Amino acid sequence: MTAGDLVVHRPEGLYCPPGDFYIDPWRPVARAVITHAHSDHARFGHGHYLAAAPAEGVLRARLGDITLQVLPYGERIVHHGVTLSLHPAGHVLGSAQVRLEHRGAVWVASGDYKVAPDPTCAPFEPVRCDVFITESTFGLPIYRWCPDDEVFADIDTWWARNASHQRASVLCCYSFGKAQRALNGVDPSIGPIIVHGAVRPLNEAYRAAGVSLPDTLMVTEVKDKADLRRCLVVCPPGAAASPWLRRFGDAQTAFASGWMQVRGNRRRGGYDRGFVLSDHADWPGLLEAIAATGAQRVIVTHGSSNAMVRYLQERGLQAEAFQTEYGDDVVEADLQATTPEETK
């Protein structure tokens, strides 16, 4: 790091010295700018939170009663001489990149992002800057995503086949972001859709934000037990290993994640199927986003950061890595937020 840097690494997280605030800090601080509401970026215990306006519902659903200030995308505020604005990251509902401007220098901290279209959140917006802080969760050339319509066609075919054999289809995915994207993309005419208790409040936040989701049921709301043998079940990964799953009988399980791109991950997880569906940019997407910023200096965070740094350096950019406490993907303690009735 050099003198005058707008963002530096501290034990609490990524810190803006002139502005005296943190971006997605992993330890409690007085002022935190939050890029999105996933649990590895938005943690409880900060004195004051600033986030993009569309994130308000999901942040409150996850963190409860917090002191939260929201900012519409693109609107600028000045704090201690630092001009700050939030711009769509395309990751999940309310996800944002943080643009900082001070004394003529412009930095952008991306948070997590994807460049592929997603009807459940605002699309990624390239922001020109001098320094770009980018994630690299899937920062290796092996990670290249298929179009969503192909993935959802595969999921619908799997669900319909299982339903024809009187088997429930259990689709495991993270309760915030991935679950709503899956619900938005599947064909609800195939059968009833049941969601886990960890997914329901986030669905409500998405609907309140104007995102279209099909009708869903809690398992306790199912009147006809035959529906349990032909439904699609959307639940967090932890539920697949819990007694909650037993009520669906001889169900087929699948996991929707970018990690399913690697052979063996599905088998090691014990799933019958794996669908490659990620809320992060793939390798071409990361390179596209970095190039679009025009930044000559790039700081790489969580994921395959060393490989990405080497690649960028070989192409003439000034690249380095920040060691952060963000997850390679979101591993949520979703079941802790549900009632005994929803998990037993």
Describe the structure.
This protein is α/β, with parallel strands linked by helices. It has two domains: 8-142 and 279-335, Ribonuclease Z/Hydroxyacylglutathione hydrolase-like (Metallo-beta-lactamase, Chain A); 148-277, Rossmann fold (3-Layer(aba) Sandwich). 21% of the residues lie in helices and 23% in strands. The protein is built from eight helices and 18 strands. A seven-stranded mixed sheet has the order 7-8-9-10-11-17-18, covered by helices on one side. Strand 5 (48-52), helix 1 (56-63) and strand 6 (68-71) form a beta-alpha-beta unit. The longest helix has 17 residues, at 148-164. GO terms for molecular function: exonuclease activity; ligase activity; RNA endonuclease activity.
Mean pLDDT metric: 93
CATH fold-level topology of the largest domain? Metallo-beta-lactamase, Chain A
For the secondary structure, the number of strands is 18
If strands are numbered along the chain, what order do they take across the biggest sheet?
Answer: 7-8-9-10-11-17-18
Please give the count of helices: 8
User: Which architecture name of the largest domain does CATH use?
Assistant: 4-Layer Sandwich
- What is the helix/strand order? EEEEEHEEEEEEHEHEHEEHEHEHEH
Q: What is the number of domains?
A: 2
Low-confidence stretches at least 5 residues in length (pLDDT < 50)?
328-344
CATH class of the largest domain: Alpha Beta
CATH homologous group name of the largest domain: Ribonuclease Z/Hydroxyacylglutathione hydrolase-like
Q: First CA to last CA: what distance?
A: 50 Å
Biggest sheet descriptor: 7 strands, mixed
- Outline type: globular
